Each structure stands twice: as structure tokens, then as C-alpha cells.
């Protein structure tokens, strides 16, 4: 996943089935999963109860730099928050954007969502930075 290799140190005696299962669960998903009709089922079945959505235009010239920072922030919350990319150019994602009561002119934006109780918050952005993503996530988790 993410063209990266992750190893679980097996030298300690305290490695058990629960730790192995957690390691696999944390590393089986990409740091950032693109939300679309194909991935939607897997996203909904994720064991993570918090989802952070980056609602953005993948065709924007800023997209590669934006994604680089978003992935870096995702590393900080691995195993706690599922980071998702929502491309606003996909017709099927229009419902996601409207759920958070956003207009295209307000994007890019971050939307964090707590799955069990539908609690959510939205932050419109001029620019995605690791610090802003981190602050937004920490505030919501508290």
C-alpha cells in the first residue's frame, strides 16, 4: 500500500493475535483513500469511527502539492482517522458535498465525520497544510 513496506517487529514476546490484527488493520488501507462508488463500501465498513474528507478538485494545478501535505498529515493520525479524498468532479460525489452544505466556491474544504453519531465539522481552506489539518483533527477529537 502507498508503495511502502511496513514491518511488525516480532522479536518481543508480547506480540499476540490482537497486536498482529491491529497492525494489519492499520496498514491495509492507503494513507488516503479516494472516495468513489468502488471504494464506498470498504470505507463504510472501516473499523475507524472518524473520517476526514478532503473535498477538492483533482484537476487543479495545486492538487499534487495539496495531496502531498494531506498524506503527511494522514501519517500523524494513522489508526485513528480514515483520510479520504473526495474529487468534486465526480458526479457521484455531489451528494457528499451537499451533505456538508458546501458550494463549489467554498472548496477545497476539510470535513470530519464521526460515524456512530453523524457528528461533523467543516473547515474551508485556502491551502492545505499539515498544521491546519492536524489542528482541525485534534480539535474535533477533543
Automatic annotation (TrEMBL):
CDD domains, per the entry: PDI_b'_family
Taken from the record, one Pfam family name reads: Thioredoxin_6
The family database entries (Gene3D superfamilies) matched by this protein are listed as:
Glutaredoxin
- Give the source's domain of life in one word: Eukaryota
- Quote a single Gene Ontology cellular component term: endoplasmic reticulum
A GO BP annotation = response to endoplasmic reticulum stress
Question: SUPFAM superfamilies given for it?
Answer: Thioredoxin-like (SSF52833)
Which InterPro entries would you find in this protein's record?
A: Thioredoxin-like_sf
Q: Per the similarity annotation, which family is this?
A: Belongs to the protein disulfide isomerase family.
Q: What is this protein called?
A: Endoplasmic reticulum resident protein 27
Q: Which organism is it from?
A: Merops nubicus
Amino acid at each position: 500500500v502507498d508503495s511502502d513496506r511496513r514491518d511488525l517487529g516480532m522479536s518481543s514476546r508480547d506480540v499476540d493475535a490482537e497486536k498482529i490484527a491491529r497492525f494489519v488493520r492499520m496498514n491495509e488501507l492507503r494513507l488516503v483513500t479516494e472516495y468513489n462508488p468502488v471504494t464506498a463500501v470498504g470505507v463504510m465498513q472501516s473499523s475507524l469511527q472518524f473520517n476526514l474528507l478532503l473535498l477538492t478538485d483533482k484537476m487543479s494545478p495545486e492538487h499534487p502539492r495539496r495531496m502531498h501535505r494531506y498524506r503527511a498529515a494522514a501519517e500523524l493520525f494513522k489508526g485513528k482517522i480514515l483520510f479520504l479524498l473526495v474529487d468534486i468532479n465526480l458526479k457521484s460525489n455531489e451528494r457528499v458535498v451537499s451533505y456538508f452544505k458546501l458550494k463549489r466556491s467554498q472548496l477545497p474544504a476539510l470535513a470530519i465525520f464521526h460515524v456512530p453519531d453523524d457528528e461533523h465539522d467543516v473547515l474551508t481552506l485556502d491551502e492545505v497544510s499539515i498544521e491546519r489539518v492536524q489542528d482541525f483533527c485534534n480539535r474535533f477529537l477533543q
